[in-house]
Design brief:
Length: 228
């Protein structure tokens, strides 16, 4: 991946802001000096907004490994790529079921595909909406909730101020990082995240990293450990 000076400058500014805004998050940032918030995207196939929504719907109530296995079967069904909105409408729903999607998820994805195909929804127009407007528009479709849209905003649209308070992994990461004696409710996550604005996406990425990847010890931490 080639270096992007503008992204590097933005990342430095955002990290500095978050470190000053939240001492707890500052420790998480300092423990991951080489963290690249976009690295996890390289593990996913290229996704437009529909593809990201498909990914999010697929992942509802599933673990990360199970989601990726199902996604791979969906790609195989469509010749090795994620489908365009028209493609799921052209195959028998039973094929989607065999790929691992539940009937409820199939209904959601076909409803979304129909609206994108017949012009009731337009990806370019949707992409230009504000975060709140986009959530309001897409959550009218049964089976699509805020978590689904928020994830798609991160993946496909690169929105910088998104948090996913309904994500169980994020709630567990907040519990561990902030040493809470309980699993935080969604509103508690939102309240904690308020100090991260306008960089909630980056803060969320750090917390997801804490949930899935242990931090490397800094030289100072290694020295302290050896001295005890």
């Amino acid at each position: 991946m080639t270096e992007d000076p503008s992204h590097d400058a933005w990342l430095q500014q955002a990290r500095s802001y978050l470190r000053n805004a939240d001492p707890v998050l500052a420790r998480l940032i300092d423990a991951r000096p080489d963290f690249d918030p976009r690295a996890w995207l390289t593990q996913l196939p290229p996704m437009d907004l529909y593809g990201a929504l498909l990914f999010q719907v697929t992942g509802q109530q599933l673990s990360v490994p199970a989601t990726r296995r199902t996604l791979a079967r969906i790609e195989a069904l469509f010749g090795g790529h994620l489908p365009s909105p028209a493609e799921p409408l052209a195959v028998d729903a039973g094929k989607l079921r065999e790929a691992g999607l539940s009937w409820r998820k199939i209904a959601t994805l076909r409803d979304l595909a129909e609206q994108l195909s017949d012009g009731r929804l337009n990806q370019d127009a949707l992409s230009s909406l504000s975060d709140d407007e986009l959530i309001a528009e897409l959550t009218t479709i049964p089976g699509i909730g805020p978590w689904t849209v928020q994830g798609a905003m991160l993946i496909a649209l690169g929105r910088e101020d998104v948090v996913l308070p309904g994500d169980l992994a994020l709630r567990k990461a907040v519990q561990a990082t902030y040493h809470l004696d309980h699993l935080p409710a969604q509103q508690e996550v939102i309240d904690i995240a308020e100090k991260w604005r306008p960089y909630r996406s980056l803060a969320t990425s750090y917390l997801f990293s804490a949930a899935f990847e242990p931090a490397k010890e800094t030289p100072a931490a290694q020295h302290e450990s050896a001295a005890t």
